[in-house]
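Below is how a single chain appears once it has passed through the pipeline. First comes the sequence as given, then the structure the pipeline wrote out for it. We keep one example in the README because the format questions we get most often are answered faster by looking than by reading.
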Amino acid sequence: MKEIMLTILGVIVFILIVIAILFHKSISQFKKILKQAAEAREARRIAEEDEYFKRTSTKHYRGAEEDENPKFHKDYFKSSAPEEPKQKPQQEATARRTMQTDSGVTIIDDRGGKQADRKIFDDSEGEYVEFEEV
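Resulting structure:
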């Protein structure tokens, strides 16, 4: 009877050892699967960020080749303020005027006639005193 009890105890211990080994293997496999899933999620997140970056960084370019500078759409730098009609610059005759101060500093004025004679303050900004250079 003692031999049968020892045999049964040996079988039970063997079964418990096998169960522990199988449990350890299954936990290891489960951890490996979780790690692979986390790596796959991270790779997918990085791929999505790369795709988003590529999509947004080339959003305003047109006809950009690797060997040429990118071209922006014409409204890329447009502000929300209403656009004022552009006037063509008029060629004015520029008269170079120079003036020397008492301390020896020379002031050179290259502005055109209309620009040099215009008022620098609006009438709404208070009293304006006409000034003429002598």
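The first strand starts at residue 61 and ends at 62.

See the next section for the split statistics.
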